[in-house]
Design goal:
alpha/beta; 8-stranded parallel beta barrel; 8 helices; globular
């Protein structure tokens, strides 16, 4: 299971790198769960990150506007992101989610064939009217993307496990693996939940809050010691 850490700037990116993160995920919590950061921030973080460490960029909690989202995806790719992560926030069903993701995949692959495209749903999709998270593996496979992800849309202290139990998460992971693709799970994940996530078959775990001083994703700052502790825990599984 790979550790994805989500910094908001170059200072936090350095802490993530020094702490041993496998994937440096550039985001902007001010704009939502998967809020997008600026192109120059992605570019700066890619330049400072070792070549053998992947850099991810979130496109935002996106609307059902395939053209707009495709342009955002190209912007992330041009800025140097290896992972292009789409939060399917405004897509209400499978068909809308698939339309967005198919166009993102085409856009990204036309620019860079080896880029990794991530389709992210939300465990609490019912709270925002988004596509059912259990549809995301099929969306991912049908669109030609690489990773199916689940996060939480509303950051109010509730975690992934408040909306999807281990049985449901295992089913999610098993389905995407049946397609020959990978899974990623996030959503205010705590340290003591990492082993359970690993046991469900998760390939990538996404974390911000638990890597911050004080454990707060908004007011806290990522620190290398917290990242290192998380990485050591995962390596022992």
């Amino acid at each position: 299971m790979l550790l994805l850490i989500s910094p908001i700037n170059t200072e936090e990116a350095l802490e993530s790198i020094e702490g041993g993160a496998d994937i440096v995920d550039v985001k902007n919590p001010k704009e939502g769960s998967l809020g997008a950061n600026f192109p120059w921030v992605i570019k700066s973080i890619r330049e400072m990150t070792p070549k053998d460490t992947l850099v991810s960029a979130t496109l935002g909690d996106v609307p059902y506007k395939p053209g707009t989202v495709s342009l955002a995806a190209l912007g992330a790719a041009v800025s140097g992101a290896d992972y292009i992560k789409v939060g399917l926030y405004g897509t209400k069903n499978y068909d809308e989610a698939l339309e967005v993701m198919k166009n993102v995949v085409k856009t990204v692959r036309d620019y860079r064939e080896d880029a990794i495209v991530v389709a992210s749903g939300y465990a609490d999709a019912h709270r925002v009217g988004a596509v059912d998270p259990m549809e995301i593996p099929k969306v991912t496979a049908s669109a030609g993307a690489d990773i199916a992800m689940v996060d939480t849309a509303v950051k109010d202290g509730k975690t992934l496990f408040d909306f999807m139990d281990t049985e449901k998460l295992t089913k999610f992971n098993d389905e995407i693996h049946d397609y020959g693709l990978k899974s990623a799970l996030a959503g205010s994940v705590k340290k003591d939940q990492l082993l359970t996530l690993h046991q469900t078959g998760c390939d990538v775990v996404g974390i911000r809050g638990a890597a911050c001083i004080g454990g707060d994703r908004n007011s806290g700052k990522i620190h290398r010691s917290a990242v290192s502790e998380l990485k050591k825990m995962i390596d022992q599984f």
